[in-house]
What we know:
Elements: H1 20-25, H2 31-39, E1 66-70, E2 74-78, H3 110-114
Antiparallel strand pairs: 1-2
Bound molecules: iron/sulfur cluster.
Amino acid sequence: MTPHPPSDRPGDQDGRGADLLSMMKDRALTPTERRRMQRRGTQAKGYAAQPGTGPAGETCGSCDHLVRKVMAKVYRKCGLMRAHWTGGTGTDVLATSPACRNWQAIPQNIDSLGDRS
Length: 117
Ligand code: SF4
């Protein structure tokens, strides 16, 4: 019976496995891991409805529901989705996205709204 060759697996010999965490940091992502990461909150998808289902030529940027959260950066969110907002990109919207069916025009002259006598 031949002896097993020395193993490269962490933790097999002389404490080499103790630093498993640092080994994992330098490891490249597999294609599946990369896809999974890209799916999780890295794309703006905080729309109230499917983009493109609203009036032609309009965008989230021209919608009254668009909220610009000013922090260190400006984050664009849909006000109709406020209950679902997180601090991540997953609940952002793009101002350039085609309008959804909940699109609402921005009132042109706010003073005229109160002047209905
Ligand atoms: S068009 Fe308006 S209602 Fe629709 S997702 Fe964009 S900001 Fe929200």
